[in-house]
Amino acid sequence: MKLWNTTAAILIVAFFISCDQKVEEKETTTNNLEETIRETNEIRYQAWNTGNPDLMEAQLSDDFVRYANGDIEFEGKSGYTNLMNMYLTGFPDLHFEYELVAVKNNKSFTKWTATGTNAGMFNGAPATGNQIMVHGFSVITYNDEGKIIKEEAYMDNLKAYTSIGYSLAPPNVD
Fold first, then answer.
1. I need a labelling partner for 161 at 20 to 30 A (CA). Which of 8, 18, 35, 173 fits?
2. Does domain 2-163 have CATH number 3.10.450.50?
3. Helix (H) or strand (E) holding 71
4. Which PANTHER family match (predicted)?
């Protein structure tokens, strides 16, 4: 009976040590991924603020998907390059301020403000010279290598478009 108690005690201690090591390994892996995500975010911010779509593309996974205000906007890296080129053509001085950044597991959460002057063609319309200030929020999901697999961006498009001269007409109900 004493041998049985000693064996049981050894097994219980071994079990708890093993569980503790697995928790520490998971925490280390999570902390490493979160640090990688922070670094990727800094590069993403730099890509937008220096107008460098190639730098952004390097941060995206091959199966990247972007959602805007809840709807799929595009899939793939080339879609992001096109998006950046459209905004950077219309607003050559486009600048993002990142006001709140939080990282949890494989996601980052960012509150941002974009400012710029409509000095070029934007969405097929000529430059107005008007300034924009748009507030938004992005939820970014990363794979295990720290590459971006999904962006969910939320912003007030109506404010952005009216600030550069678009107007919203009431519907024609005739």
1. 173
2. yes
3. strand 71-75
4. ESTER CYCLASE, POLYKETIDE CYCLASE SNOAL-LIKE DOMAIN
